[in-house]
Amino acid sequence: MTTTALKARKEFGKTLASDIAHRLRNEIVTCQLKPNESLKFDALRLSFGASFTTLREALTLLVAEGLVVAEEQRGYKVAPVTLEDLHDLTHARILIEVDLIRRSIERGDDDWEIRVISCLHRLAKIEERAPEDYAGNAEWKSAHRQFHEALVLASGSPTLLAVRNSLFDRAERYRNLSALYRPRPRDKAGEHRALMQAAIGRNADQACALIASHIQTTSDNVAKYASGVINAG
Amino acid sequence: MTTTALKARKEFGKTLASDIAHRLRNEIVTCQLKPNESLKFDALRLSFGASFTTLREALTLLVAEGLVVAEEQRGYKVAPVTLEDLHDLTHARILIEVDLIRRSIERGDDDWEIRVISCLHRLAKIEERAPEDYAGNAEWKSAHRQFHEALVLASGSPTLLAVRNSLFDRAERYRNLSALYRPRPRDKAGEHRALMQAAIGRNADQACALIASHIQTTSDNVAKYASGVINAG
DNA sequence: ATGAGCAATATTTTCGAAAATAGGCAAAAA
DNA sequence: TTTTTGCCTATTTTCGAAAATATTGCTCAT
């Protein structure tokens, strides 16, 4: 095989380190880099074409996001997946997302409503176009992420939003993991539409209940379908 | 003046980078490094005696904790302090700390109770010894931090605990800032004792109410005494 | 005066070599 | 056989030089 990717290239971020963090994050979330896999510098240098220190900076970023764990003097590895971690993550996500969506509904203006509606529309379009398997579809994943982000974007809490985004990534890794072992994706279209309606109808209590249930159900399904590959808590 | 600190030394962490992050964090939280102050590599290299890349790794860590902000290609600076940020931070802290303390009370065992009690005892001892000005006292700060940490330690939520710790640091910076401008520290001893009693009495509702009010009142006082040095939100 | 263009300087970002550290293997001692 | 000790190798961690990028200050045309 040809030893590809000798030279680093910038795609996303402005600096090479943030760019590599972006690419690494993607590979971890999509499970191309498997849980527990050890991240050796020599190997990373080969596949990303960057030097020790640049890689080290990128890894440091991902440690803070909980996608990579560092054992000092003993290198880095992809964060493990466990049932315990999934439960912990789910609890944290519900707590934060419920708070954010409630405040978003209180504070959201017309632009916010428009954004929520158009994000849902885009999501629906993609699902129509590929009704069978949108779960593995990168475009659907992006639209899905953006819809959920739109819902909470008017909350006015940068701190919690940042935490939320990092938890979303961690959760997406579990979703991808379970998708590998599930016969067909759960149909979330109805849930998304109901969420949108509760949000723009300014029905905060209902929106909070819906999002909590949405996150919990997804998590339960992950636990059900992926329990074989997840280390017991 | 003698140009001190040419050679780096390890005090806390196992690696130099984590050690420097530790020291930098401390300098930022205690406002020896002032909000908005730009963190130039040459200057840092001089005072910490480490190389570019090691410093860069330490700064990356602090960016994730919200104590440093990075503008790509334009360096790092100490995170600004604003009223808006203080409100955001306070909201996030109350949301998370209330959840953690409730679950800690549900799950805490005998060791947890003992730990809470002994942490409070240590705190009280220090306050007795220096009744006038324990606010600037590093030992008191450490005991204070440990008491509050003990309360939530049985929650069993590593994710939220990690976020909590990072928010605690950010809040401590604001507390230190206001202490500079306040005639005498507010007496929190009674509040701490009440918290302990509610916790080991397994009165979750009361403990949650107390911690929320404790955080909110502290924040209000910071806003009151430090508003002069805090940029308007 | 004013602003655009350009050179000079300051600063950040990236690199690969060198130092430090951990883990394993083999030989010697118990 | 089992344990200990001391190399040797694999790997991480740190360094300072070099490249890339931003900023400042100057010149010149308008």
From TrEMBL, chains A, B:
Taxonomic placement: Bacteria, Pseudomonadati, Pseudomonadota, Alphaproteobacteria, Hyphomicrobiales
Keyword check for DNA-binding: yes
PANTHER family for the chain: HTH-TYPE TRANSCRIPTIONAL REPRESSOR GLAR, TRANSCRIPTIONAL REGULATOR, GNTR FAMILY
Keyword Transcription regulation belongs to the record: yes
Domain HTH gntR-type: 14-81
SMART domains (UniProt xref): FCD, HTH_GNTR
Domain of life: Bacteria
An MF annotation (GO) of this entry: DNA binding
Stated name of the protein: GntR family transcriptional regulator
Pfam family, one: FCD
Keywords: DNA-binding, Transcription, Transcription regulation
